[in-house]
Amino acid sequence: MEPHFSSVLFERAVDELSRLPGVGRKTALRLVLHILRMDMNSVDAMANALVRLRHEVKYCKVCHNISDSDVCGICGDSKRDTSIVCVVENIQDVMAIEATMQYNGLYHVLGGVISPMDGVGPSDLQIQSLVDRVSEGGVKEVILALSSTMEGDTTNFYISRKLKTFTETVKLTVLARGLSVNDELQYTDEATLGRSIVNRVPFA
Amino acid sequence: MEPHFSSVLFERAVDELSRLPGVGRKTALRLVLHILRMDMNSVDAMANALVRLRHEVKYCKVCHNISDSDVCGICGDSKRDTSIVCVVENIQDVMAIEATMQYNGLYHVLGGVISPMDGVGPSDLQIQSLVDRVSEGGVKEVILALSSTMEGDTTNFYISRKLKTFTETVKLTVLARGLSVNDELQYTDEATLGRSIVNRVPFA
């Protein structure tokens, strides 16, 4: 049941919003009705924020994270430890790790993982720029923080080979695998539980 | 857990989108990540549609429905029956009735219903303009298509009293109450079932 509109402006706004992922016609209609009642300045500010985001956002030339300038706020922060580089798949992963407030090093955003099924090869990712970055010196540790999937493992393996020449100066680490915080032992899958036994650590 | 952003532009876009109803931070983040990957022209078109909607949309001076000009497409359509006016609460109701494709008359959008609890009185609604419209002549039927709630009934009663002087020339009707299409008899509430028996119609 498609509603008929008496306003082309209204219809166009609904059409545009329903192009967003997870926004159907009904949701778009509800949003448009809300926008109609919003303060004019607020609507302008929202539209402006979206246009500026798309036109002005940059990617950091060091780590390829989103940035407002050529070098992002993390790479440009003098308080951060520039000797550790954490390799992640995308910018959401940077946000997730930043949210833990447990990491004070830098990042390197690959832009994906190697996935022959999806036609993504090493040259489609920021792997060469990672190698260049490490070869410039100053990096003591590279943390491979990719997803625990076959594609993630493949990418880890590829990167580890690419960084083989630096093994004497650069430590290569991966995220710990084990029980999630609050996980009950009996409901944990075998692979995870197995890894958590093998990689057990001294009781603090 | 609030993600930290390396871009103010990014953060502002997330903030703006999370002001929309039903859009939390996580949804806004997902939308912004999508917008970043969208074609630049599409983002401009979307932003432009929202700005133009808010700045340029008008309300029809006859029926108060949304419109791109002074008189809406429904009131200006010469194929529609101008002798019937359907009184509704809001523009969504116009869309709902239009979607049935069972009505060819005009509308009158009240902009709400009388609700003393919410501080909405008759003067806050487009009731006087309805009376003016009827008194200009040409209207043979006014359909009261308000919600079947206490506020709707109160508003129906108020309007019927206001239109009392026209009872000889203007027929006042309300929407039929009864079983919903596909409703099973045993699960229908008593009030609805009772009305559907009292208001039974000849078997077609």
Characterise the protein shown here:
2 copies of one chain form a homodimer. Chain A is globular. The first copy, chain A, has 2 domains: 8-56, Helicase, Ruva Protein, domain 3, CATH 1.10.8.420; 74-171, Dna Topoisomerase Vi A Subunit, Chain: A, domain 2. Chain A has 7 helices and 6 strands, in the order H-H-H-E-E-E-H-E-H-E-H-E-H. In chain A, helix 4 links the parallel strand 3 (84-88) and strand 4. Chain A has 204 residues and is an alpha/beta fold. The interface between A and B is large, with 62 and 62 residues.
What key phrases describe this protein's structure?
homodimer; 204 residues; alpha/beta; Helicase, Ruva Protein, domain 3; Dna Topoisomerase Vi A Subunit, Chain: A, domain 2; 4-stranded parallel β-sheet; two-stranded antiparallel ribbon; 6 strands; globular
Helix-strand sequence of chain A: HHHEEEHEHEHEH
CATH level-two architecture of the largest domain in chain A: 3-Layer(aba) Sandwich
What is the overall number of helices of chain A?
A: 7
Q: Give the amount of beta strand of chain A, in percent.
A: 5-15%
Largest sheet of chain A: 4 strands, parallel
Total individual domains of chain A: 2
The gyration radius over C-alpha positions of chain A equals: 23 Å
What is the CATH topology classification name of the largest domain in chain A?
Dna Topoisomerase Vi A Subunit, Chain: A, domain 2
